[in-house]
Design goal:
The chain is an alpha+beta fold. It has 21 helices and 25 strands. It has a five-stranded parallel beta sheet with strand order 3-2-1-13-14. The chain starts with a strand and ends in a 14-residue tail after the last strand. Bound molecules: S-(difluoromethyl)homocysteine and zinc ion (ZN). The site of S-(difluoromethyl)homocysteine has 10 residues, from loops.
């Protein structure tokens, strides 16, 4: 039987920094599983990478005035670095802008076309004559066809909840420039998902997935229809047919193919052994919002093309991790500053906390108090304490060497049985994607060791020559439990587990050992141990207090600002202006010099909105809100005649959107 396991974690969009909420869903569970399977001796290939095409990218890049490639380069690097910091063991972390991804994606399309699963259709889409391009839903706003709300979005009305095609909007216009949009026919390629209904039904019926995953997938299969797999854009994988300028694949067509191309990039000589072997087990870790794409649409694409690629076998889909009762949101300040986090806390502390709280069957919660208490009571109080007290005892009463095990009395036999049972439970939990349960086993094992140590009281046994042997047996058994503890905790807290492993006198890393061998081989008696050191620091109140304060300070920032009266507001002369030209102020990362038209004439305004913006021309023509009666001030040696209003967002600075307001009009 093949022991190949191909593991993937959903490719995150490279349009903003990842936070612990993301890590808890599709990522940490995937990494722990990959680490566990390697210990089992499986031949593992674990891949991930950035998802870099699609409207989610272009819109977020446009809003902050960055070219899409610059935008994804930035966040690809940031997210890759976070995974490294968190000790992830991806065998390869790729990106969908890797040039090899194009060929694989285009080949899928050509196969599907040849096999009769793709058809061309001409439909009306919204076109901006000013911007010379078709605009996707997310770029469009207009009047709701149902409730006549003016600012309705391109796909659904946020006022009355109606959902519709963007072409149904009355007076649709561009969200970015405000320009009016017209209907224009355009050709697209539709994938006949409806033709895969039967095949999908018989394939999915024996999948051992969670009931909610199966039900959700089934509801999509029941309703399969042809779907457009192309878009009018220049950001994406191009359609490989003549005369298709400006046509690219829809991001959900190319992104899952990214799992294959990531393997091709990382392992040009070995990827086929995984993807083309029917015996390989394919395990895909995702967040629950990605279920239809992994359980239905991507499998249909795989069924319709010509390579014998693996279809997903296991689909662990997790819920979300919130922060103190609300979703993580960087723009609202409802987040954890990762740089500060890692100055105070360790990778294994957060890995343990997330694993112990994994959102497997329902949403879970990161709370600072709970983080503190679990790290102190469990990692330090149970795990660290067992190792420390035992190893100090061995130094003092066994000359720092592992003693020989003697006869086991009933208490010791029961303890040995117990620690082996917990180890087996941990194995079962990991292999069934129950990360929470695995973390629980870790603490149960540490606690069992502590209880046995307390029951046996080796410090008393050491005092009497007749009980020395019993003391040595006790210590040897506790050290066996530490060995098993290092083993079963290593997928979750690999750094600490390796330290514990070394403290037992082993030289290599635990990753190079095998689960079964570690369990079945007793510790070598006579092995010399190094001097022990502590594994965890206590988290004091002073360490988390500022974090909680900062979080709540952001929340109350507005309400805690000193109150002003309507007269104070009236003092502000806020006007609509239009950006005529823009240039960077030399030697500044963020300062821009803007020339802005107001009805009273043109002003020069300096504004710190330029950080990370690579394409300043995108600002030209935009309408902005100007504080028109601000006293001129000299900034960086240049005079500024006003100020413009902007918002700080997840991925950069965003300017308020003004569409119809004429230049010079008052903002109140
Ligand atoms: O939801 C997301 O973040 C997507 N970028 C996931 C893509 S998974 C895969 F198909 F690439
Ligand atoms: Zn409406």
């Amino acid at each position: 039987m093949s022991n190949k396991i191909l593991i993937t974690s959903a490719l995150p969009y490279a349009n903003g920094p990842l936070h612990f909420g993301h890590i808890a869903g599709a990522y940490l569970p995937g990494d722990c599983y990959a680490r566990f399977q390697r210990l089992q001796g499986a031949d593992v290939l674990y891949v991930c990478g950035s998802d870099e095409y699609g409207v989610a990218i272009t819109l977020s890049a446009d809003l902050v005035g960055r070219a899409p490639k610059e935008h994804v380069d930035l966040f690809h690097a940031i997210n890759k670095q976070l995974f490294e910091k968190l000790g992830f063991s991806f065998d390869h972390y790729s990106r969908t802008t890797w040039e090899g991804h194009v060929k694989t994606t285009q080949q899928f399309f050509l196969d599907l076309l040849e096999n009769g699963f793709i058809e061309e259709r001409v439909t009306d889409q919204l076109y901006s004559e000013k911007e010379n391009r078709f605009l996707a839903d997310r770029y469009v706003i207009g009047r709701c066809p149902k409730c006549h709300y003016e600012g309705a979005r391109g796909d659904e009305c946020q006022k009355c909840g109606a959902s519709y095609e963007a072409t149904d909007l009355v007076h649709p216009h561009s969200k970015l420039t405000g320009s009016p949009l017209v209907r224009r026919p355009t050709k697209h390629w539709f994938l006949r998902f409806d033709l895969f209904k039967e095949k999908l039904n018989s394939w999915i019926k024996d999948k051992p997935w969670k009931a909610n995953v199966l039900n959700f997938a089934q509801s999509y299969i029941d309703d399969l229809r042809p779907r457009a797999i192309t878009r009018d854009s220049d950001w994406g994988v191009k359609v490989p047919l003549p005369g298709t300028e400006g046509k690219v694949f829809y991001v959900w067509f190319d992104a899952p193919i990214g799992y294959i191309s990531a393997s091709q990039e990382g392992f040009p000589d070995r990827w086929k052994e995984f993807w083309l072997d029917p015996e390989t087990k394919l395990v895909q870790f995702i967040g629950k919002d990605n279920i239809p794409f992994h359980a239905v649409f991507f499998p249909a694409m795989l069924m319709g093309q010509n390579q014998p690629y693996k279809l997903v076998d296991e689909l662990p889909a997790n819920e979300f991790l919130n922060l103190e009762g609300k979703q993580f949101s960087k723009s609202d300040g409802w987040t954890i500053d990762l740089e500060r986090f890692f100055q105070k806390f360790t990778t294994d502390q957060i890995r343990y906390y997330i694993a112990a709280n994994a959102p497997e069957n329902h949403d879970a919660e990161f709370s600072w108090k709970d983080f503190q208490s679990r790290c102190n009571a469990e990692l330090l109080g149970k795990y660290g304490n067992l190792i420390n007290r035992t190893l100090v005892f061995v130094q003092n009463h066994s000359s720092g060497i592992i003693p020989q095990r003697g006869e086991l009395d009933s208490v010791s036999s029961a303890f040995l049985e117990q620690i082996l049972r917990i180890t087996e439970e941990a194995r079962h939990a990991y292999s069934h994607f129950c990360l929470r349960k695995a973390a629980q086993c870790v603490m149960e094992l540490a606690q069992a060791g502590n209880v046995y140590f307390d029951t046996k009281k080796p410090w008393l046994l050491a005092k009497n020559i007749e009980t020395i042997c019993e003391m040595q047996t006790c210590i040897e058994l506790v050290m066996e439990s530490i060995k098993l503890l290092a083993l079963i905790s290593s997928p979750i807290i690999p750094h600490t587990a390796n330290q514990a492993w070394k403290l037992l006198g082993f030289t290599g890393t635990i990753e190079h050992a095998r689960w079964d061998q570690i369990v079945s081989h007793n510790l070598p008696s006579g092995q010399k141990l190094p001097q022990p050191h502590v594994l965890f620091q206590r988290i004091e109140d002073e360490m988390i207090g500022p974090e909680i304060e900062q979080l709540h300070a952001k929340k109350t920032e507005v309400s805690e600002a000193p109150q002003i009266t309507i007269d104070d507001v009236r003092k502000l002369d806020l006007r609509v202006g239009q950006i005529l030209s823009v240039e960077r102020v030399p030697k500044s990362k963020k300062m821009l010099k803007l020339s802005i038209a107001l009805s009273s004439g043109t002003r020069t305004i300096l504004s710190g909105i330029g950080e990370g913006m690579t394409d300043l021309t995108l600002l030209i023509g935009k309408k902005v809100i100007v504080v028109a009666n601000l006293k001129p001030a000299t900034l960086m040696g240049l005079e500024s005649e006003g100020m413009i209003l902007s918002a700080d967002t997840e991925s950069g600075i965003e300017l308020p959107l003004l569409l119809e307001a004429p230049i010079g009009s008052c903002v109140r």
